Amino acid sequence: MYPASITKIMTGMLALKNAELADVITMSSDAVFSIDRDSSHVALDVDEQITLEQAMYALSIESANDAANGIAELVGGSMENFVAMMNVAAKEIGAENTQFANAHGLFKEDHYTTAYDMAKITAEAIKVPGFTDVFSATYFEIPPTNKQPDTRYFGNRNKLLNGEMPYEGIIMSKTGWTSESQHTLVTAAKRGETTLIVVVMKSSTSNDKWDDTVQLLDYGFSQFYRTEISISQLASQLDLGTKSEISEPNMVSLLLPSGKNLSDLAVHLDGSASQAVESAITVPLCLQSNDSTGSEDDLLETQVTISPIAASEQGTSESDEGNDVSTEAAKNHAFPIILIIPLIVFVVATIIGILRLRANHLRRKRRRRKRNRQTKSYRNADQWKW
Q1: Which H or E run includes 74?
Q2: What are the structural domain ranges in the chain?
Q3: Which residue has better confidence, 177 or 303?
Q4: Is pLDDT at 333 greater than 70 in this prediction?
Q5: Which of 84, 190, 201, 274 has the highest CB neighbour number within 10 Å of its CB?
Q6: Whether 308 contacts 279, CB under 8 Å
Q7: pLDDT per residue as tens digits for the range 2-14
Q8: Catalytic residue at 63?
Q9: What span, in angstroms and rounded, lies between the C-alpha atoms of 137 and 247?
């Protein structure tokens, strides 16, 4: 779909990544006059100088197309070069179904995106220092310049930012509109450790985009909960053909639908992963949950590194594991052994004592028999003599 001025999210992100807010923009004739004068602008003039910071607030609050062109020329050297930067950045972010043709979002057939791609772009943008400050601002002033004797005053008409439709946790929001795109809106809100991004495109009326955004945020915050999962714990589900391990990341955070838990998840690699890992590779890993209808939805995509485990490493690992198990077993049995040893000593001592008594009894018995034989012999001898 056609994005209109939510395009400026990409423009603002690239500006903050590649330039300084104090940098000075000098407006060219092309930057000023290549836009439709009936579109959003702040009446910048040829050779007028403003700072990047001033242009950024004009971009976000007034959705100024002339400011977008000025930013493009500053950062890219030309508007054409900046568009190339936008498309490279989109691909790096993973916005595979996006193509930009300008920095401002005015309609062109070859300027399009998807709601999912815009969410990915916004997720990257809000990580950039200063981005949410600019795209959540409600008021800004540009003092007189070398071409403009009057101060320019900007007041945000975005209902989620200016208080007309208050919503807890809004950290940025950007509107867009052209006759071809209809109403578009990108909003991010954060509560606790959870940040949600809502992208609404092609709303037929202005109120629709606000209402749909609020309902989607309400749904996201009420029907999902945040949890952490160890990727290594799920690695055993992967059919990689050879002994291998997932080395990064260790833990990932994700949102699960209410009623789902980690036992409902399955892990899989996309088609780019070899089934037999011969060397370390980095691939997208997806966590998947099956719903009641049998369809499958990926809940998380994250980059992980899979490495083969050499035979020696396996042996070492298994040996170490055996040692660990033995050590742990010894610890677990130490206390019972301490109790058993005295009992064994007592039993052995008792047996030895019994054997000694038995031996003494037999010796005494043999002595008595010997004495009796000697006594009888003496008596017989005396009788014979007598």
Answers
A1: helix 65-76
A2: 4-204, 227-312
A3: 177
A4: no
A5: 201
A6: yes
A7: 999 999 999 999 9
A8: yes
A9: 41
